[in-house]
């Protein structure tokens, strides 16, 4: 004996649990993304002047033209108002030696060109440079004594505010001014010396 079904008697109930499951899956995913947002991409720094971890060419040192290297960066954290760059020699005989302090780089900047003038302020007034370990304003390239190669770290700091600083800021003053304002930082490393 066969049963006949009319279209009006087709059960819709099996669709209801699927819709409920889909609804809760969507709500769960939205909640999960709100409570545990995806991590931001880390700040990334590169230099077109040398490979990170490699040898710094003589053109960027006291044995060459003493040019500052080019830098570029991506994945800037939200809220970045300015950047600062510090270059230091970690193997100097007297301890850490600072080769370059540049700060108040605008938050919308994504690069620094090669060979930045050693003046305190750029022509457009958008950044300032501090006093390096040689006692000069601006960049002073690697110039280690004879011996094993030294490690040089160029660190980019993404900052939440413009730094108020007087003329002739040194490394300690710049580092102190950045306290509590660093959103992210990243370094590239180079080696120089014989």
Written account of the structure:
The protein contains two helices and nine strands. The termini are far apart. It has helices at about 15-35, 170-180; strands at about 45, 55, 70-75, 80-90, 95-105, 110, 130, 150-160, 180-190. The protein has a six-stranded mixed sheet, covered by helices on one side. The longest helix has 21 residues, at about 15-35. Strand 4 and strand 5 form a beta hairpin. It is α+β, with helices and mostly antiparallel strands and about 190 residues long. It has one domain: Alpha-Beta Complex (Phosphatidylethanolamine-binding Protein). The model has no long low-confidence stretch (mean pLDDT about 85).
What is the element string, with H for helices and E for strands? HEEEEEEEEHE
Whole-number mean pLDDT: 85
The major sheet is characterized as: 6 strands, mixed
Radius of gyration: 27 Å
Contiguous helical run count: 2
CATH class: Alpha Beta
How much of the residues is beta strand, in percent?
Answer: 25-35%
Largest beta sheet: what is the strand line-up?
2-9-8-4-5-7
- The oligomeric state of the chains shown is single chain
Total domain modules:
1
Shape-level CATH architecture: Alpha-Beta Complex
Number of strands: 9
**What is the end-to-end distance?**
99 Å
CATH superfamily: PEBP-like
Percent in helix: 10-25%
Question: Which residues form runs of ≥5 with pLDDT under 50?
Answer: none
CATH topology: Phosphatidylethanolamine-binding Protein
Overall body shape: globular
* Protein structure class: alpha+beta
């Amino acid at each position: 004996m066969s049963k006949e079904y009319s279209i009006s008697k087709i059960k819709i109930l099996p669709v209801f649990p699927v819709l409920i499951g889909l609804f809760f899956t969507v709500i769960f995913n939205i909640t999960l993304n709100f409570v545990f947002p995806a991590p931001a991409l880390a700040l990334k720094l590169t230099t077109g002047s040398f490979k990170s971890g490699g040898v710094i060419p003589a053109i960027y040192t006291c044995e060459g033209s003493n040019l500052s290297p080019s830098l570029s960066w991506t994945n800037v954290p939200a809220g970045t108002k300015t950047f600062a760059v510090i270059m230091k020699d970690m193997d100097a005989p007297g301890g850490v030696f600072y080769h370059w302090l540049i700060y108040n780089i605008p938050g919308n900047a994504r690069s620094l060109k090669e060979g930045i003038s050693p003046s305190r302020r750029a022509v457009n007034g958008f950044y300032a440079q501090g006093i390096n370990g040689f006692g000069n304003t601006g960049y002073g390239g690697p110039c280690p004594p004879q011996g094993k190669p030294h490690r040089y770290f160029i660190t980019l700091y993404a900052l939440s505010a413009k730094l108020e600083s007087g003329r002739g800021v040194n490394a300690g003053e710049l580092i102190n001014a950045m306290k509590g304002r660093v959103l992210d930082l990243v370094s590239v490393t180079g080696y120089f010396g014989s």
